[in-house]
Amino acid sequence: MKNSKRFATLAMLTMTVTFFLAGCVPQKMSSHPKVPTGLIYGSSYKYIAVPLQHIMERIADVFGGINGYGWAIIIITFVVRMILLPLMLNQSNKMTAQQEKTRRLKPQLDIIQEQQKAATTPEEKAELSQLMMKVYKENDSSMMPSLGCLTLLIQLPIFSGLYQAIQYSPEISSSHFFGIGLGSPNIIITVIATLLYVGQSALSLVGMPAEQKKQMQTTVLMSPAITFFISLFAPAGLALYFLAGGIIMVIQQLITTFIIMPRVKKRIDQEIKEKPIVTVVTKEMFTQKATVKPAADVTETPTETSDPTVATPKVAGKRNSGKQRHKPQA
User: Fold this and answer.
1) DSSP classification of residue 181
2) Residues 119/125, Cβ–Cβ less than 8 Å
3) What angle do the packed helices 187-204 and 210-233 form, to 10 degrees?
4) Which residues are within 8 A (CB) of 50 and not within 5 positions of it... i.e. 6 or more apart?
5) How far is C-alpha 298 from the geometric centre of its chain's CA atoms?
6) How open is the CA angle 115-119-124, to the nearest 5 degrees?
7) Among 12, 28, 214, 273, which one has the highest count of C-beta atoms within 10 angstroms of its own C-beta?
8) What are the C-alpha distances in Å from 229 to residues 43, 190, 222, 242?
9) What backbone torsions phi and psi does residue 269 show, to the nearest 5 degrees?
């Protein structure tokens, strides 16, 4: 679970950093902004943003009217998301299966994690890590999370290119979509896009155990928070990209929650019936290890008593032997 959170956090941070590096240049929006140059910004603009500008122009010409560029952004978003949808559903399938297997292994994993907290030496920690790997291996599972951020990383070039396409095209940045200027931030689109991602996050928690829900709360709130933050300062055209993408994400999550998850749980249940969970770790293992200590090579020393008439055999023997040596001969 910790690994899953780290991957989700990394994906979100990557998205934010890419946004600021690729599009958020230190200049205000103007009618003729300076086209970016250089290896990174210039290449992104030349090979991604410019083709996107041409595509949006053609789509806008087909639709006509003042709303053409807005519809172009929505269509591009739907096309990209629909192309990625099979990959995203496949990843959801794998992630759900892995989470379900990990849930079945949780009693054993909890025992190891409890011992890891009490471990004091590197050798003990390494031994416990090997033991955890064995729990996963014996049950045909993996410690590494499924790369759920892969589809997000694939979208990053489109994301940054779309920002540049809007920013550096006077026609697109000055266009409107139902009265909303695409070249400047808009709170209405920002709120709608954020609410869609809130709904998707809420759907992702349906059917999860209470403990797992508690662990996932921080992660699922990151996506709406990042969406709100970026859309609040970005041009409305980019926020429209999030809005359209949020609709697809909700549809994808509905499929995952109500179709994929029940099927995966049923399949895992059947697999466990045929091949039960292998018990690698029990509490008794560590209890016995803690109670069984190596015998100390210590010679017991007799305890002296306050009664002078009572002596231990060892001490008495020494005294008697001394008396025998000093006994006068008859």
Assistant:
1) E
2) yes
3) 160
4) 165
5) 53
6) 100
7) 12
8) 26, 9, 10, 12
9) -60, -40
From the number of C-beta atoms within 10 Å of its C-beta (0-12, 13-18, 19+), residue 304 rates as exposed
| Token pair in block for residue 253 | 């999550």
The set of long-range contacts for 122-126, using a CB threshold of 8 Å and a minimum separation of 24, is none
Cα separations (Å) of 75 from 46, 70, 244?
22, 9, 9
Q: Could you give phi then psi for residue 140, rounded to 5 degrees?
A: 55, 45
Backbone angles phi, psi at 326, to 5 degrees: -100, 10
Q: How many helices (H) and strands (E) does the chain have?
A: 13, 2
Q: What distance in Å separates the CA atoms of residue 311 and residue 278, rounded to the nearest whole number? A: 59
pTM: predicted TM-score of the whole model, two decimal places? 0.73
CA distance 182 to 216: 34
**CA proximity to 234, closest of 153, 163, 181, 172:** 163
- CA–CA gap between residue 96 and residue 81 (Å, rounded): 20
Q: Measuring CA to CA, how many Å separate 108 from each of 142, 172, 235, 330?
A: 14, 57, 50, 80
Question: CA 77, CA 242: separation in Å to the nearest integer?
Answer: 8
Report d(CA 100, CA 89) in Å as an integer. 16
Per-residue pLDDT 10s for the chain (330 aa) are: 444 444 444 444 545 444 444 444 434 444 456 777 778 878 888 899 999 999 999 999 998 788 999 999 999 999 999 988 888 888 888 888 888 888 889 899 999 999 988 888 889 889 999 999 999 999 888 777 655 566 777 788 888 888 889 888 888 989 999 999 999 999 999 999 999 999 999 998 888 877 777 777 777 888 899 899 999 999 999 999 999 999 999 999 999 999 999 999 999 999 889 999 999 988 888 886 666 555 444 444 444 444 444 444 443 444 444 444 444 444
Look up residue 18 and give its two tokens.
Answer: 């890419």
Residue 228 CB neighbours (<10 A): 18
